[in-house]
Specification:
By secondary structure, the chain is an all-alpha fold. It is 71% helix and 0% strand. It contains twelve helices and no strands.
Length: 309
């Protein structure tokens, strides 16, 4: 039974979900070092803030995946889907069982989020604690409402907005703030990059599933735009991420090694070529993993090289 919930959690989506935390944490840790003059950089991977932020984000992602499995399953949207099988639509996990799993996962994630807030802000920054708790609750609600309920925004073409805001801006800027307790507006540039690349993964998913989505009245942005415009949108997402990251690097240039993040864009540029030539939507399934892992690689290379002094 447990292995079925692990399948529903879709572990392959987790590297993408933590990409923003990696960028925000490493840059935030660097900034706190610059501000305080204390040697904090070496302590990042021993930091309670870092690991609790990672676990909180993973919790949000698992909730989202469970809710997506549940929402699409009870609507019948997954009955003829391409890619890995979904647990509710296949009958392996009942809707009642999946709903219970969502509740349990949400409870555990809230507890971890509270620990994160405590370690980050303590008792001295109560207003920040309230703000981040509210953001955590909003993240859980947004994860569930993607495909669950009559007003599920994943069925209205707003999924891309959610992914950009939560996987990009909130993930990067939020984790940066946990370390610095302030916002450097330049941090929005890598946040935009992560948000756009995360949206590109969703767009690929929707390009792959566009025919079934049409049949099931799931009005994703791809369904609304049509294939030709959705492909153009995809190119702009990837190129926009490259531009935003390049601008940040230019503004904070220290070493030629900072350009190593461009390595991650080699498979992404190749993906643009593949998408432009694609005729059979099912063939895009393998591209999802490539773009997600390229985003994860970008996050690691960009964050580490950006902290070079």
């Amino acid at each position: 039974m447990i292995k079925n919930y692990i399948k529903a959690a879709r572990l392959r989506t987790l590297p993408l979900s933590v990409s923003g935390i990696i960028v925000g944490s490493i840059l935030g840790n660097q900034a706190s070092y610059d501000i305080s003059g204390l040697c904090l950089k070496s302590s990042l991977f021993f930091s309670s803030i870092f690991w609790l932020a990672m676990l909180t984000t993973i919790g949000f992602q698992v909730i989202s995946n469970f809710a997506n499995d549940y929402g699409d399953g009870i609507r019948g949207s997954d009955n003829n889907r391409t890619g890995e099988a979904r647990m509710v639509s296949s009958g392996i996990i009942t809707p009642k069982q999946m709903k219970f799993a969502i509740i349990i996962t949400s409870g555990i994630t809230i507890i971890i989020a509270l620990l994160l807030i405590y370690f980050a802000f303590g008792k001295e920054n109560f207003n920040f604690s309230i703000l981040f708790f509210a953001l955590g609750i909003a993240s859980i609600i947004a994860a569930i409402k993607y495909t669950v309920g009559n007003s599920a925004y994943g069925y209205s073409g707003f999924g891309d907005v959610f992914v950009f805001l939560f996987f990009g801006l909130l993930s990067v800027v939020g984790s940066y703030f946990l370390y610095t307790k302030n916002i450097n507006f330049e941090i929005f540039l890598p946040a935009i990059s992560i948000g756009l690349l995360s949206s590109a993964v969703l767009n690929l998913n929707n390009l792959r599933d566009r025919e079934e989505d049409k049949k099931n009245h799931k009005k994703t942005l791809v369904v609304k735009l049509g294939v030709k415009k959705a492909k153009l949108y995809h190119y702009l997402l990837i190129l926009g991420a490259l531009v935003a990251a390049s601008i940040y690097t230019f503004l904070n240039f220290r070493s030629i090694y900072q350009l190593l993040f461009l390595v991650a864009f080699i498979p992404l540029i190749k993906n643009i070529k593949t998408v432009s030539k694609n005729k059979i939507s099912a063939e895009l399934d393998s591209e999802l993993k490539k773009v997600a892992l390229s985003t994860f690689l970008f996050a690691i290379l960009f964050a580490i090289t950006s902290t070079i002094i």
